[in-house]
Amino acid sequence: MSEALFWSREKNGVRCNLCAWNCFIAKGKKGYCEVRENKNNKLFSLNFGKLTSIETVEIEKIPLFHFYPGTKTLSIKSFGRNLRGQFFANEILKEKGREIKEFAPEDVVEEAEKERVRSITFGGDAEVYFEFAYKVARFAHRSNLATVFCTHGYVEEEPIKKIAKYLDAAQINIIASADPDFYKRFVGIDDISPIFTTLKQLRKQRVFIEITNLIVTKLGDNLELCRKLAERINTELYSEIPFHILQFHPGYGLLELPKTPLRTLEKCAEEARRAGLRYVYISNAEHELNNTYCYNCRELLISRRRKLKIRLIGDRCPTCGLRINLVRE
Q1: Non-local CB neighbours of 84 within 8 Å, separated by 6+ positions
Q2: Nearest-angstrom CA–CA distance, 38 and 191
Q3: d(Cα 196, Cα 291) in Å, to the nearest integer?
Q4: Partners of 213 in the beta sheet?
Q5: What is the DSSP letter of 107?
């Protein structure tokens, strides 16, 4: 157990200011995430160093396609969630049955060095174990290891500002093209604006960003909303953010839904490109849009089918010389 960051005392309790729930927590009670507890009017993190998963994976599996492509990352996860609702019901049940192993921040970095990875990825909703992720990130930078922060974006700005100096990339996971009705019905969130505030703050802090958009069969596959989301990213952020269309698979709380048809994903990708986004992918299904193409001359730059092949010259297209928005050594 570790004293938490981002909280203040109030009458009869404390206020947590880590995520957008801004929970008031009475003495002896926990916040919405269930991993931040008021003990004698001090807020403590209950999952510091307690990991449910630590594994070495290809960075493309995160998925990150433009951040050190072709390298491996040490992906860690802890327990706790600040998004719940019916959509995450099955994941929450799975989480309760997972084995927990304890690590010091230095242990994670040592494991990354032993595995010879290029980065450490804070998976799940990394903000729910922010204190641990922050300390690991500081040690990682001392060892020249890059860091990646995965989140659904329901975070306050101050935590982003604090970790940004030790953060190299972030993956923001959006569901159902940020459909407000979907978030209200299935995630329990009435206001999705914090997601876009998080994106803007990451951009301001010069953290490399990739965005995923999970297209949920029937309930969250509206093409117009996908186009509007892409337009908003293009207008409020920038057109070269890698944008990943993800196929829904059974196994979330919405167990009765089949996986998203490939044609629906293709239509969403087409709308995103029409909205001006230059790097649009269908990332977790077999498709030619797994690959990276130069948006100027359409040259194949990175092939991800079967075996990864990189044809870039540094960060430029070998045919037209256009600089590609990616991070390489």
Answers
A1: 32, 92, 187, 188
A2: 26
A3: 27
A4: 174, 245
A5: H
Query: If you compute the radius of gyration of the chain from its CA atoms, what whole number of angstroms results?
Result: 20
- Going along the chain, which residue ranges are E strands? 2-3, 7-10, 13-16, 24-26, 36-39, 42-45, 50-58, 72-78, 101-102, 119-122, 146-151, 169-175, 208-215, 243-247, 280-282, 292-293, 300-303, 309-310
Convert the pLDDT of each residue in 27-46 to its tens digit: 999 999 999 999 999 999 99
Predicted local confidence at residue 1, as pLDDT: 77
Threshold 0.85, pTM exceeds: yes
Neighbours of 55 (CB within 10 A): 14
* Average pLDDT of the residues of the chain: 95
The rounded distance, in Å, linking the Cα atoms of 114 and 93 is: 32
Letter string b/e over residues 12-26, b meaning 16 or more CB atoms within 10 A of that residue's CB: ebbbbbbbbbebebe
Query: What is the Cα–Cα distance from 247 to 47, expressed in whole angstroms?
Result: 31
Evaluate the omega torsion of the peptide bond into residue 250 and state whether it is cis, within 30 degrees of 0: no
